Amino acid sequence: MRKQKCTAAGKVQFLLCLMMALALLAVGVGSLLKADAQVSVSEKRTLAAMPTLSARNLLGGAYADDFERYYSDHFWQRDQLLAQNRKLNQFYYYSGAEQSVVVMAEHDNLAEGGESLKAKSTTAPTQATAQPTEPSAESTEPPTASTQPTEPPEESTYNSGVTDEDITVSDGSTIVIGDRAMELVTAVDDVLSDYAANINRIKQAVGEDVRVFSLIAPNAAEFYSPEDMHTGVHSQKDMIAACYGQMDETVQTVDAYSALLQHAQEEVYFRTDHHWTALGAYYAYTAFCQTAGLHPVQLQTMQTGSYEGFTGSLYLATSAYAQSEALKENPDTVTWYQPTVQTKLTYYDDASLRNPQTDLQVICSLDDDVVNKYLCFLGGDHPITWIDTDVDNDRVCLVLKESYGNAFTPFLTHHYQTVIAIDPREFNRDGKPDLDLAAFVQEHGVNDIIVLNYPLAINNSAIVRWMGRLVA
């Protein structure tokens, strides 16, 4: 009798295992046979495509990695499972206060390089999409054309009204407060010192006839986070001051911090993305003009337009958490300003300037399926972006930047016959071309160099290392 019971129990276990195996097989086969979606609506990103099978990819291991990403992106009922995961996460990341907060672990991918627009969006915005508007005095009144420095406010930081008592926080780097997401920054003293040393080496390499400017732009967390998240080792004001303090007096430092602080009540940063807005970039540009002795273009003279419904990089970083719903329900508007001068943009893959690509503009029109609306600025990050203008002064400006420089660079076209933007992440590393900055500057007659980065970049050892290799 006991043997019969054991046999019966074994059969039940076998049937249960078989049913589970068949269910898993059905899900797996169904995932492969179903029609592939190209875009994840919930994550606002393009999904991985089926990799091409070749002997080289298969033997080298690339096919297995690519197929794993493809399968993960196209798993059966994936969007529904992600939605349920967000609901479950709400139980773990919720505070009873008015401000619902999640702070996530590091997601920084700066070292991987930037994002660029594909060639399918090829024209500048037309009159149909560009509706000129007169900026209101309250939100977009530009500074005067004076090159005299303006007095910063008495307080050292903008008071957002959010206090430590309002929130519950755990360790991490991305914080969501209400409908705003921000990247927290922690100072790495050795890396900051290396960054300053690299700027000094750049100045020494290019010689006394080339002006070198350093512009470090704070991010949104400096102005809109609770005090303990932008003080001490998290104070971006202190990071910038410490970095500037280690630069040679021959390097001209730009006080973009004070300019942004004065306008922190305006839309100078996105709420769902880690970048500043074009308005924020404009105020930093006016600070550069004050330092460089230039008269900034008046904002109201520029044609403007916008892209609505933008949910950016920090929404993607937090999309598995319930708090991201507040970002999704309150998307950003990406406003752009068209230069008043004529421009022609060409981008290149390396310093040889061979194989020019001319299918983008300084301000690009975007197809509806382009999720990242910030790509309207220069078409995103390219190794070398070359802009010719109709400014007849034979002056050349070179901008060393990550993606914060994309919204900033168009304003420079009013002052230089040529503006060149270079992304240091795209050179002098494995699989990337070489670039000798001093030789490039001499060959192309560069007059001014602007090194522009935001706080996560100047604390990123990989970024700083690659910058150093420009003048190795």
How would you sum up this structure, described in words?
The chain is α/β, with parallel strands linked by helices. It folds into two domains: 40-75, no CATH class; 115-159 and 185-307 and 333-469, no CATH class. The protein has 15 helices and 14 strands. Strand 12 (396-401), helix 12 and strand 13 form a beta-alpha-beta unit. Residues 90-98, 119-124, 126-156 and 162-172 have low confidence and may be disordered.
Sheet-strand content, in percent, reads: 5-15%
Global Rg: 25 Å
Instruction: Outline the low-pLDDT stretches.
Output: 90-98, 119-124, 126-156, 162-172
Largest sheet: 7 strands, mixed
- How much is the average pLDDT? 81
Structural class: alpha/beta
User: Gap between N and C termini, in Å?
Assistant: 83 Å
What is the spatial order of strands in the main beta sheet? 7-6-14-12-13-11-10
Order of helices and strands: HEEHHHEEEHEHHEHHEHHEEEEHEHEHH
In which range does the helix fraction lie? 25-40%
Number of strands: 14
Shape: globular
Number of helices: 15
Number of domains: 2
